[in-house]
Specification:
By secondary structure, the chain is mainly β. Helices cover 3% and strands 36% of the residues.
Length: 474
């Protein structure tokens, strides 16, 4: 996918992933990076290594540009040769590796991008960029070079970093005034002017008008939103979890050719990973790239990786395993199944939204097991099967509403849900309820069923582990 910008164009790399960096401590140099090429790409790729201080200011930058066809599929070693500043503080400073598959200048300019401003305070330059939709990821590029120059050199890049949408209106420390003046060649009429491009991707769900099936819960912080297909950092860093690499995956469009990575290949895209389930056509959502930081995830209908648009049709097994900070997930209408243990142990998850028109048919075994912050959930009409232990030990779960298509509830599906006081079954098609499906639910719980199914469902739900005082009514 390609970011929109009037001044520059950046195309992301889902094709390459940076696994590690090599440092010669004796010489004080970054000597190499380990790069994986996921599939064939022959055009330009630029590896940008930057060192940031604890305030986010750039202390050093290096660019290595080459052609993708020079790298083989699998692991490669790319020489960098970047000197580490003498004042480098390994306890506070951060090394980040970015990569993009093309940096091109559409026109030479001495003006900032629209809405971008530079302010000098305390001998430091601060860049302020326009606000973007909540959920978007914004990449800020400050580049100084002639439009006719095709090779990106160290001296051209003044600043290059990802900025979360929640912070995009804040001033970004670009570097010292002296450093920027030296790079740009001075001030214009007493004012420091930079070639600044603000690049970003709008949230795919902004203003879509859908009515969602939503699980009530606490409202999320605007800055926490993570939208799959946003900017990506397939890089490495000296401080785990800090690195963000610019990139994009855009939703929409159809892929015509059944080509690309084979079934089973894991594709990094934005802040997320996908696994190919049908070559050139479909992928499963495989989880956030950084599970320890994911708080609010929206799974898209489609994702574009390496020039191919895939339908996202399932959530893989253990996709959100160890996502202990996850509070909200929005599931697109194209998802047909939720895998085993997909959200198990997401102890802070309190809101699950199924988009209107959901096609989800199966909730896998242990899918939401142990999600102790989840208080309520409404399943779409498309869901036919709730797997074994799917909502077991959800200690705070009080209300559950199933859709009209439900045919099966698995063993111990709601066992241990001691706060569950209201279970509404809208389906008239329920045929099977597993052993101990209701074991340990609240002693005063009420199970509401369709009027013309009251007698049948009393028989079907009999002795499924619930207490004698649990009522089944129409």
């Amino acid at each position: 996918g390609q970011y929109a910008s009037a001044k520059f164009s950046i195309v992301s790399s889902d094709i390459f992933a940076v696994d590690s960096i090599g440092i010669d401590e004796e010489k004080g140099r970054i000597v190499e990076i380990k790069v994986n090429r996921n599939f064939f790409y022959k055009d330009e790729v630029t590896f940008i290594t930057e060192i940031f201080d604890e305030n986010g200011s750039v202390k050093a930058v290096s660019a290595r540009q080459m052609y993708g066809e020079a790298l083989r599929t699998g692991e490669n070693t790319v020489a960098i040769g970047m000197d580490i500043p003498a004042d480098f503080d390994k306890t506070k400073d951060t090394i980040k590796v970015f990569l993009v598959t093309r940096i091109g200048t559409d026109e030479a300019t001495t003006e900032n991008s629209e809405g971008t401003s530079v302010e000098i305070r305390d001998n430091k330059a601060y860049l302020t960029v326009p606000a973007y939709d909540e959920g978007s990821e914004v990449v800020v590029l400050v580049l100084n070079r002639d439009a006719n120059e095709k090779k990106v050199k160290d001296k051209h890049i003044l600043y290059f970093n990802q900025v979360p949408a929640s912070q995009v209106a804040d001033a970004i420390p670009v570097g010292s005034e002296e450093r920027l003046i030296a790079k740009t060649g001075g001030k214009v009429n007493g004012t420091l002017v930079l070639n600044a491009a603000v690049l970003g991707e709008r949230s795919p769900d902004a203003g879509d008008g859908d009515e969602d099936s939503e699980t009530p819960g606490s409202s999320e912080k605007p800055g926490d939103t993570q939208t799959p297909g946003g900017s990506q950092n397939p890089g490495d860093t000296q401080k785990p979890g800090d690195t963000q690499t610019p990139g994009s995956s855009q939703t929409g469009g159809d892929s015509q050719a059944p080509s690309g990575p084979k079934k089973g290949t894991v594709l990094p895209s934005g802040n997320n990973k996908y696994k190919v389930t049908s070559q050139g056509k479909e992928v499963a959502y495989a989880g956030p790239a950084n599970k320890t930081k994911a708080t609010n995830v929206t799974i898209p209908d489609k994702v574009k990786v390496g020039g191919i648009t895939y339908n996202v049709t399932s959530i893989g097994d253990r996709a959100f395993d160890k996502c202990t900070k996850l509070t909200k997930v929005t599931i697109s209408k194209n998802i047909k199944s939720i895998g085993k243990n997909a959200f198990a142990g997401c102890t802070k998850l309190n809101k699950v939204i199924f988009k209107a028109g959901s096609k989800c048919k199966t909730i896998g075994a242990n899918a939401f097991k142990g999600d102790k912050a989840l208080k309520s959930i409404t399943l779409p009409n498309s869901v036919q099967k709730i797997g074994d232990n799917a909502f077991a030990n959800c200690k705070a779960l009080k209300t559950v509403t199933t859709g009209t298509g439900l045919t099966e509830i698995g063993k111990q599906a709601f066992s241990g849900d001691k706060e569950l006081t209201k279970l509404t079954i809208k389906s008239k098609k329920l045929k099977k309820v597993g052993k101990n499906a209701l074991k340990g639910i609240n002693a005063k719980a009420t199970i509401k069923v369709p009027k013309n199914k009251l007698k049948d469902y009393k028989t079907l739900l009999k002795s499924k582990g619930q207490g004698k005082k649990v009522q089944i009514k129409k």
